[in-house]
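Sharing a chain and its predicted structure for anyone who wants a worked example. Both blocks are below, sequence first, tokens second.
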Amino acid sequence: MKLNQIGYSEFFMPPEAEEFLDIVKKEFSESLSVEGKHLSKWLKHHGETEGKWIRAKLALATGSLLGLSSDTYIKWAVVCELIHSASLLHDDVCDEDSLRRGQVTVWKEFGIPAAICTGDYLIAEAFRKLTEITQGWHQTILLKLLSCSVKDIVFGQSVDVSINSKDLKWSDYKKIAIKKTGPLILMPMKGMFKCKEFESDECLALNEISQHLGLAYQWVNDIENVIGSEQERLSDIIYGHPNALVIRFLERCTREDRKVYENIKRLSIALSGLNLDKEIKEIRLILDKSMLPVHRLPIVVQPIVITLKEEMLKRVGKYGKN
């Protein structure tokens, strides 16, 4: 049986890496503990909802399977989660989302300046956390990668907030989605690849995989924004943010129909009644493409990206037929 035909029901984590997840959570929690009265309150509010720790798991699993020092991959896992949290805070401001994981977002509860300050603190804390890695050359490698990844995220977000979804072409949307989402998927594993001093081909393969996964991830997020329940629904339509469903729907419309759908209510009704089977089929094709470069990765880490794809397929399955 080929490796990519194996069905994984849970995220692939070697036992030794699984044991360290609690340490990551503890150190992450310690990073949210500050003396400042206001910042402490904002961080506490942000930390009350727990995510899936996917980025931490990616770093832990990859570092462990590649035989790196646990000190390096534990600290790197915390760093990845800190950057992810910062991106969520700033993303909520840019997208004007009022809810995150069922809870009122920081900017909505305390104001935009509070959310910006909280996100900035988490970014600064991520860079500080790198200094705790005992192997100095690992610090240097990961510092450069962290800086480049944050820049890529900011670049993608800057384009995202500067363009109205109704004016965006599908080809441009894909570039934005990859730039905005790909780095956070790539960073946990790429950091461990760099510390292991892999050749460029392994890193290029990982980059190709993350681009496909990033596009699929953002596309599913956009579907959930329109018809799902996990985010604040319709915020992309209301505020004119790039959304895959909106862009693809309007591209199929005549010029006259596009004028009709300038009305937000009419556009929302039309989108909520869409048959998503075609969208889901294309997302699945993208996820299949993401597995094409897997053979170029070290065989020990291949199950990690395969199970990541499987987890995304579960999300996709909620909105279309098998």
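Comments welcome. Residues 1-9 have pLDDT under 50 and may be disordered.
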